[in-house]
Specification:
The complex is a heterodimer of chains A (219) and B (340). With 219 residues, chain A is α/β, with parallel strands linked by helices. Chain A has a single domain (3-218), classed as 3-Layer(aba) Sandwich (Rossmann fold), CATH 3.40.50. Chain A has 7 helices and 10 strands. Chain A has a 6-stranded mixed sheet, sandwiched between helices. By secondary structure, chain B is mainly alpha-helical. Chain B folds into 2 domains: 1-166; 168-340, no CATH class. Helices cover 72% and strands 0% of the residues of chain B. Chain B contains 10 helices and no strands. In chain B, helix 1 runs antiparallel to helix 5, helix 2 (42-79) runs antiparallel to helix 4 and helix 8 packs antiparallel against helix 9. Classes of the chains: A alpha/beta (219), B mainly alpha (340).
């Protein structure tokens, strides 16, 4: 798989080069590498957000980038839980409202939405912050709220982009503990991180090293 | 006349649609030559993106073409004020050989553009892009029609001289003319009975056949699709005759004013706009369902085409009945009130 940005232009970026990668179900992968190495691009392709320039990402026998928008939306909605580097919660909404957002297009009844969200928040130990606006909670709580939002649809694949970049060691360990629980539930987890705490964690089955868009090593 | 603001607006619309059509046709040629859904090559991925762009341009082009059709009619109405003998848009459009054909081509491209967009929606509604080659072929058909439309508009405007003596709608669409040229030399009862007969057949075909399309195999689907297409074309032409010869004199309350275009002018637009919207909606949904019947055998693994046919057929029944209701309302009121 190859990915170019601004193909043919003077500002062309060759973001991914010759990526050939298979991830098994229930495997936890860490994509390690310096900033600008293509980690986020690879995650975005796996998450069905962007497509490759050459090649394809196949999930469950379906080529993601080739699916029409309607099917890509359904794929993201039903199979992917995305945890962003800066969490991307809506600051004006409460934690509970942020977490229930992915359920809105599914037509889940409000009572059911609240029940599912509160169960997750309780599991992640931030149920006491459910009514707080996202702008008024700490970094660790934001992280947990972002994880809760990613899990609310019960996705089979969790994608996390630099999830510990803004967390201290204790909160990072808490995050990895949550990932460990999810792994036990059979989830496939792909984490992009240059944090050694993540790449050396026992929860990670395989660590791939990405440099200048190419897979340089696996360990 | 070519420097009138109406003419410049028309020519601008034509230029825009031609540019969109050329981009679409170039993409279509590449798709027909290189399309390979199984390939992961850069060219294939680029083609998939380009066909999206072409589809977006066709959608914009359709909107421009619809606006252009309205501009054309209102422009003709304006030209009628400076052409000798013309009382309304019908007279201005008949001032040379190119006016009515230009309008005909404009309407044809609107119908075909809408059908193309329906095909595109069915194509991208499936995971397998089953109609991409077919819709690329459609883009190649659209371009010469758009070019012909633009050429006819230019010829119409260039040959439109204020010194030309033209006729009024009562003469052009009148049935009583002898020794002259009449487009609509039909007896009223024959025309209206024909329209009612065709409507009944099409509505029955829609409700009986298309709402139960799943149980039918390929050959009858294609055959009925063609028959329904022909039926809706006949329905459309008959409806235009009925609107011109029968409906419009009742709406205007003037027995010799037979202009299908004045129905879009105030105060008649209150009846004219819904009348034309229902008519065009009915014909497009009818043609759309017929076209979908013809292509469903190509690939309908998702059942999306069947679903579309049923929805289009239902919409078509509603719109056709609404059209007949609005078309018959004024004559009915006239008859009920005993000629008042």
């Amino acid at each position: 798989m190859e990915k170019y940005y601004n193909r043919g232009g003077s500002n062309q970026v060759h973001a991914l080069r010759g990526i050939d990668l298979t991830i098994d179900a229930n495997e936890t992968i860490c994509i390690h590498g310096p900033s600008g190495s293509g980690k986020s691009t690879l995650l975005s392709i796996l998450g069905g957000i962007i497509g490759p320039t050459i090649g394809s990402a196949v999930v469950g026998g379906k080529k993601l980038a080739r699916l029409p928008d309607r099917f890509l939306t359904l794929y993201r909605r039903e199979h992917i839980g995305f945890i962003f580097q800066r969490f991307q919660l809506i600051p004006e909404l409460s934690v509970l409202e942020n977490v229930t957002l992915p359920l809105l297009p599914l037509g889940v009844r409000p009572a059911q939405q609240k029940k599912r969200a509160m169960e997750l928040l309780e599991k992640l130990e931030i149920d006491h912050r459910s009514d707080f606006p996202a702008a008024e909670i700490s970094g660790g709580e934001l992280q947990r709220a972002a994880v809760a939002r990613a899990l609310i649809n019960d996705p089979s694949i969790i994608i996390a982009d630099e999830p510990t970049a803004h967390l201290d060691t204790r909160l990072s360990e808490d995050f990895l503990s949550i990932m460990s629980d999810l792994k036990k539930l059979g989830k496939t987890i792909v984490i992009a991180s240059h944090d050694p705490l993540v790449s050396e964690s026992p929860v990670v089955d395989r660590c791939l090293y990405l440099r200048d868009g190419a897979l340089a090593a696996a360990f | 006349m070519i420097l009138e603001s109406w003419s410049i607006a028309l020519l601008t619309c034509s230029a825009v649609t031609i540019i969109f059509g050329i981009v679409g046709a170039v993409t279509a040629l590449q798709v027909l030559r290189y399309w390979d859904i199984g390939s992961d090559s850069e060219r294939q991925i680029r083609l998939e993106e380009q066909i999206w762009l072409a589809a977006t341009l066709v959608e914009f082009g359709l909107v421009v073409q619809i606006i252009s059709a309205f501009i054309f009619i209102y422009a003709a109405d304006y030209f009628a004020t400076v052409l000798t003998g013309a009382m309304c848009a019908a007279g201005a459009l008949s001032a040379n050989y190119y006016g009515l054909p230009a309008l005909g081509f404009k309407l044809t491209t609107i119908f075909l553009g809408t059908l193309w967009i329906i095909l595109h929606k069915l194509d991208i509604g499936s995971e397998y892009f089953p109609f991409t080659r077919l819709k690329s072929f459609g883009l190649l058909v659209l371009l010469p029609l758009l070019a012909s439309d633009a050429l006819l508009v230019v010829l119409y405007l260039v040959n439109l001289e204020p010194e030309i003596i033209t006729s009024c709608c009562g003469i052009i669409f009148g049935g009583e003319v002898t020794g002259g040229y009449s487009l609509f030399d039909y007896s009223s009862s024959t025309t209206i009975l024909s329209l009612l007969a065709v409507s009944t057949v099409l509505l029955l075909a829609g409700s009986v056949f298309q709402l139960r399309v799943k149980s039918v195999s390929r050959t009858p689907l294609v055959l009925v699709g063609w028959l329904l297409t022909a039926g809706w074309v006949v329905f459309y032409l008959l409806s235009l005759v009925v609107i011109t010869v029968l409906v419009s004199p009742y709406v205007y309350a003037l027995p010799h004013h037979r202009c299908p275009f004045d129905l879009l002018q105030y105060p008649y637009v209150i009846i004219g706009l819904p009348l034309y919207l229902f008519l065009h909606g009915a014909v497009i949904s009818g043609l759309g369902a017929a076209m979908a019947s013809m292509v469903t055998w190509l690939n309908d693994a998702d059942g999306l085409v069947d679903q579309f046919i049923r929805r289009a057929a239902l919409l078509n029944i509603i719109l056709t009945l609404l059209f007949l209701l609005v078309a018959g309302w004024q004559p009915f009121i006239y008859i009920v009130l005993g000629g008042q």
